[in-house]
Amino acid sequence: MTTLAKYLNTDAHDPALIDVITTVTEVGKTISQLLKKGALADILGEAGNQNVQGEEQKKLDVLANDLLLDALATNSHCAGVASEELDDATPANADGSLLVLFDPLDGSSNIDINMAVGTIFSILPYQRQGHMSENSDFLQAGNKQLAAGYLLYGTSTVLALTIADNVVMFSLDPDTGDYVLIEDNVQIDADTSEYAINASNYRHWRAPMQQYIDELIAGKTGVRGRDFNTRWVAAMVGDVHRILCRGGLFTYPFDTKDPNKAGKLRLMYEANPMSLLIERAGGAATDAVNRILEVEPTEIHQRVPVVLGSKNEVNYVADLHVKHADQ
Ligand code: AHG
Ligand code: MN
Ligand code: MN
Question: Which protein residues are within 6 Å of ligand 1, measured from CB?
Answer without folding.
Answer: 55, 84, 103, 106-109, 198, 234-236, 252, 264
